[in-house]
Amino acid sequence: MKHHYDTIVIGAGIAGCSTAYFLKQLGQDVLLVDKKGIAGGGSGAAGAFFSPKVGIDLPIKQLSDEAFLFAYELYSKHFSEHFLQSGILRIPKDATDAQKFETYRRYITLEHEIYTPQKLKELGIQSDFEAILFPQAGICDPSICEQMAQGIEYELSDIKELNQENDLWICGKYSAQNIVLATGYETDLLDIRYMSIKGIWGNRGDFKTQFKLDLSMHKNISISANFDGVIKIGATHELDVKEVIPCDEKSVAGLLEKASSLIDSSDFELTGMHCGMRASNRDYTPTVGKIIDVEYMLQNSPNILDGRRYPLRYIPNIYLHNALGARGFVFAPYCASELAQHIVTGKAIDARLDPDRLFYNWVRKLK
Ligand SMILES: Cc1cc2nc3c(=O)[nH]c(=O)nc-3n(C[C@H](O)[C@H](O)[C@H](O)COP(=O)(O)OP(=O)(O)OC[C@H]3O[C@@H](n4cnc5c(N)ncnc54)[C@H](O)[C@@H]3O)c2cc1C
């Protein structure tokens, strides 16, 4: 007999672990599965800066602010050992960016403070421009994923296929009522081409140093506060890298070079390199919810390619939590809570996360 669960969550990054956490809070019997281990993908490579979005008042910024406050509450109350509330400085890249920051300031709804170049200098940070400090921001230790998965059954396994038998999902040796796919940039288990989820490669270097730095900061790279003698530097910008490529000292040296324009990195000694992919989609907004049965829709909707709309049919009892972009540690808890409530109580998921938004745009391009 297969062991049966209410829900199997595939992928144990921050998306999968936070989903499993909220499902368990709501009383579900959950199995968490990952082929590389907990936080073995992008979440383990991440600098895991917990940093708000700065920008004009677009829906994505409002969503990001709400998710930030939700995650702040969760991390500081329940995961404080894995969350260093160092504050994060957002520093403009150049004069043009500094002008944009002037505009962005009026849209900031989160607690913040302006740091002048003089004040930054007193902290050992070089910048010709004013920066914005977000005191609630900080850094998560990727081991927060393991902490979220505490008390949840976990299996190291590479899931190659999913099958349905008598309304149950069969996943390797196990069966479940529901499946949650939280597999990051790897999306080959089902046809979800319409979501256009792509990987963006990035790397992080950990450096041993005596340099005293109490704040974390973000310019075009992220630099953490000094935590137990280690400063983390990370970035994810490499759009052309399609697979996880091994870390090399050359790319990490590039991070250090950029960091040295901001802080004194003369005694930095490389102690660890981490590389990985983060998953994003076309509109840089998380996608959380049901999955459309693409094959059925294309075969049974005669004029769909001409733009005609049909009622959507979904694959039953399978859900997705993905495309968290460069802010996985900001978005995941909110998205996970929305999804878990939907699965357990039927409550509608925040419509801004709904993957359906991507379907008809994708279909139109098929013609
Ligand atoms: C270098 C780098 C720096 C980053 N810095 C930050 C940062 O400072 N702040 C921030 O918020 N975000 C950052 N990000 C982004 C952040 O890491 C992602 O948003 C986040 O990791 C997404 O989490 P996830 O759970 O969706 O994906 P992942 O963490 O990639 O998890 C997906 C998991 O699914 C597993 N999996 C896939 N397919 C299968 C299968 N068939 N069977 C079993 N298991 C499977 C994988 O092994 C993987 O562990 C960074 C990313 C990188 C790469």
Bound molecules: flavin-adenine dinucleotide
Give me the secondary-structure category: alpha+beta
CATH superfamily of the domain at 3-43 and 144-197 and 282-364: FAD/NAD(P)-binding domain
Strand content: 25-35%
Q: What is the tally of helical segments?
A: 10
Largest sheet: 8 strands, mixed
The arrangement of helices and strands along the chain is EHEHEHEEHEHEEHEEEEEEEEHEEHEHH
Low-confidence stretches: none
Q: What integer is the average pLDDT?
A: 95
Terminal CA distance: 46 Å
Secondary-structure topology with pairs:
Layout: E1 3-10, H1 14-25, E2 30-34, H2 42-45, E3 49-50, H3 59-78, E4 83-84, E5 88-90, H4 95-105, E6 113-115, H5 117-122, E7 131-134, E8 138-140, H6 144-148, E9 153-156, E10 163-165, E11 168-171, E12 174-181, E13 198-208, E14 216-218, E15 222-223, E16 230-238, H7 249-259, E17 269-280, E18 287-292, H8 294-300, E19 314-322, H9 328-345, H10 359-364
Parallel strand pairs: 1-2, 1-12, 2-9, 5-14, 12-19
Antiparallel strand pairs: 3-8, 4-8, 5-7, 6-7, 10-11, 11-12, 13-16, 13-17, 14-15, 15-16, 18-19
Helix pairs in contact: 1-9, 3-9
The protein binds flavin-adenine dinucleotide (FAD).
Q: How would you concisely characterize the structure shown here?
A:
The chain has helices at residues 14-25, 42-45, 59-78, 95-105, 117-122, 144-148, 249-259, 294-300, 328-345, 359-364, and strands spanning 3-10, 30-34, 49-50, 83-84, 88-90, 113-115, 131-134, 138-140, 153-156, 163-165, 168-171, 174-181, 198-208, 216-218, 222-223, 230-238, 269-280, 287-292, 314-322. It is an alpha+beta fold and 367 residues long. The radius of gyration is 21 Å and the shape is globular.
